[in-house]
Fold this sequence. Notes:
- The complex is a heterodimer of chains A (153) and B (78).
- By secondary structure, chain A is mostly helical.
- In chain A, 82% of the residues lie in helices and 0% in strands.
- Chain A has helices spanning 3-32, 37-66, 73-108, 121-149.
- The radius of gyration of chain A is 19 Å and the shape is flat.
- The two termini of chain A are 20 Å apart.
- Chain B is mainly alpha-helical.
- Helices cover 58% and strands 8% of the residues of chain B.
- Chain B is built from six helices and two strands, in the order βαααααβα.
- A two-stranded antiparallel sheet of chain B has the order 1-2.
- The longest helix of chain B has 11 residues, at 48-58.
- Chain B starts with 5 loop residues before the first strand and ends with a helix.
Amino acid sequence: MSPRERNAWIHLLAILVVFVPYFHFVLQTFMHQEAVGRPVLLALIVAAIAYTLLSVLGQAVNQVAFGKPLSDERDATIDARSLRVAYFTILSLVMTALGIMALLGVVQSPSPAGLIWLPTFSVTSQFVFFCFVVAEVLRYATQIACYRHEAFA
Amino acid sequence: MSNAPIVNHIRRLRFDMGEMTQQALADAVGVTRQTIIAIEAAKYAPSLDLAFRIAHAFGQPLDAVFEYIPPTARARRR
């Protein structure tokens, strides 16, 4: 396994370990509480710190055990491909969300023109953050797939 | 038989050069060993710059290292 692939695994696992419980907590908080601002904000801070610590620690261990990873043109090609996937993922999710909001606005509005349905700031911000996390997961998963299967021309 | 339009003779040339290791070739051209492995297996097409560096490392012209197979010849090989 190349050092860069190991780095991708470290980032991917850190994201899953930290943000799956985080979003589970956020979902439970939104469903069962009215005052969601402070708990969610605290959870976000804890998650950000935990992810930073895990990924930095993992990369430090990787570097100490296996040496500093050299980056060459193939690594740059894989990076570019994974960033393309992440970009299109986040674009698709946000456009889908906007479409759903517009559709709900049409369905719920009394006027024929309809209005876009605007969820609360908390819901919107958490959804945007969720899109970003999903994009990052796909970014590192794409890198791993490319390294594992050499799946590019 | 691979359908890739470009085949390479890197593995044979490494052995002809006194059994040069993949790591030694990677160090000589400034890439990782994994990239050399991918190029040898025709899983990655190197840039022109890297292809020339590999040929230079072997002291061979470019077309002695990388061979272009036209589509008709590829179909006949299959």
